[in-house]
Amino acid sequence: MNKTSVDTATYVGVVGAMVMVLGSIVVSGGNILNFVDIPSLMLVLIGSYFSLWIAFPGKDAIGVFSAIGRTFKKPNFNQAGIIQKMISFSEKARREGLLALEDELEDLDDEFMKKGLRLVVDGTDAGIIRDLMELEMSQMQARHAVKIKGIGMWSALSPGLGMLGTVMGLVAMLKNMDDKASIGPNMALALITTFYGSLFSNVYFLSWACKLTGYDSDEASVKEMIIEGVLSIQSGDNTRILAMKLLAYLDPIARVALEKEVLKD
Predict the structure, then answer these.
(1) pTM, 2 dp
(2) Phi, psi (rounded to 5 degrees) for 118
């Protein structure tokens, strides 16, 4: 079971980006209040959000909020713990046989690993085990892809709604050209929706989608590592060989730290 912790980087990015945008307005001599327009904000954010209901089923359109919420929580896949557990299972299987692992499975909290090892204990063919576990992994990534695509679509729609708002504002302004003094303020107001669309699309939505893509890649890598470990245990690989296979999935710093422990003589 994957635990999560606060992703400080997301909070720093969300706050820092907005501070820089507002700060640049102030430093350049502008007035922040000139960039505040509730109708424009509603058109860009709410209008583009409801467009998601056209592009996706309702449950996926609603699910975009929970997906964004996940970017504020950093998953901890505990690769080191998984490797140590796999090494322990490998040693026991080589010492007592694969059936000896059955008693250990009930206390295993990683359901993906538990399913794989259960298939091993049941004597399932290695090819079938790989196919089943890779199928589950691919379906997981497909579910993730829908959520990432939802945020990506919101990012694509926001600038379009921003431009729509600008066109609406320009039409209204051109219909009232008699008042020359109002042309400048009305033009500025018309452009605010484009500002909002660009801000939310490029600063937030794209960044959130990118972060979730990274989380998905990390989780898939962990599952690939588990698959290799399960199949290595089934084939009776030397425990040191298994450890070297699994350590290859770690980043260099984490790998060096764990190597000293699991590859010690």
Answers:
(1) 0.89
(2) -65, -40
